[in-house]
Amino acid sequence: MTRICQVFRSPLKPEMYLYVDKAEGCARVPETLLARFGEPQPVLVLAISPTRKLARVNAADVLASIESQGFFLQMPPADAVYTQRESARD
Predict the structure, then answer these.
(1) 21 vs 13: CA distance, rounded Å
(2) What is the pTM of this model?
(3) Going along the chain, which residue ranges are E strands?
(4) For residues 40 and 25, is the Cβ–Cβ distance under 8 A?
(5) Could you list the pLDDT tens digit for every one of the 90 residues in the chain?
(6) Which of helix, strand or coil describes residue 65?
(7) Whose CA is closest to 16, among 44, 43, 31, 37?
(8) Structural contact between residues 43 and 25, judged by C-beta atoms closer than 8 angstroms
(9) Could you give phi then psi for residue 72, rounded to 5 degrees?
């Protein structure tokens, strides 16, 4: 099954992305998540199938999460979080 997805980036958290079904938008994303994510900034629209190669996440996991909860949240890589914390200490 292929799904057309909208990907948003967080203005508050570097390298954090939110994937949603383009037709639904952010309607199923909980308000508490959106508050911590910030105003979603559109990055791209893409067709995702279970076999599609994505840079940091498994496409099948993205599709399953969108199907079950209405969104997939891609967290920043661990090294990016560490770098952000270290720069905040300086």
Answers:
(1) 21
(2) 0.85
(3) 3-9, 17-21, 41-48, 72-74
(4) no
(5) 899 999 999 999 999 999 999 999 999 999 999 999 999 999 999 999 999 999 899 999 999 999 999 999 999 987 654 555 556 665
(6) helix
(7) 37
(8) no
(9) -130, 130
